[in-house]
């Protein structure tokens, strides 16, 4: 088993007697189904349905003070805490940014020798393993407890990319992407049966109409990797944007209909002049048929 402390992640805590219902009315995941030792994937959206911040969330047991712990990008933790504070109005909740005292450890490729406190299975993709919330200075102690080799966070990044799970700020831009574009619907990040939340109407319409034309897909690289944000071209036409990459694998945000048409026409995909290939072409819809007048 491998474990890595993730320095780019922070933790926001929401507690109080109204915390569960308060969060459930705001985010894409069903917080009413959370319990200590479990986690869910979700996001806070704009009213227009775009991702403000995505996160993993778990319920803290009473021995850790109860409430809900949100594993989110550390750079966005202060803004998330402020946003939740703005929404709380008269709700009996307390919002705290704990990122200076509580961090995130990822563990994968094995099973725990002993399960630590504040640990939960990553709900997005089984290959991603586990998340453990703990202070950074206890990272080695946690790794020893679970029987894992402590590795660099870059090793986890390569594993995340190979698992096909996008990361905000690299594979998509916060405030600019819809949940379907980042595969949140496929990664257990949207509960389509729960009640209302911010941005729900747009997300539900996309789901029921099947109108998601932009998707995050895995790509294979035969040489140097393009920088995140590099335009992907089919011939000379833009069809997407390159995301993160490691070990000849990467993620890309593409217009699946345009890429399907381009590949059907025999056009190669490039990013920054470098060739890229879809790791799984079956993710594309059939190429548009050509009609003859």
Outline the structure in words:
The protein is α+β, with helices and mostly antiparallel strands and 293 residues long. The protein contains 6 helices and 16 strands. The strands form 3 sheets. A 6-stranded antiparallel β-barrel has the order 11-14-13-12-15-16. The radius of gyration is 20 Å and the shape is globular.
How would you state the average pLDDT, rounded? 94
What is the ordering of alpha helices and beta strands? EEHEEEHEEEEHEHHEEEEHEE
**What is the percent of helical residues?**
10-25%
DSSP strand content: 25-35%
Please list the strands of the largest sheet in the order they lie side by side.
11-14-13-12-15-16
Q: How many individual helices?
A: 6
* Class based on secondary structure composition and strand pairing: alpha+beta
Largest sheet: 6 strands, antiparallel, barrel
* Anisotropy-based shape: globular
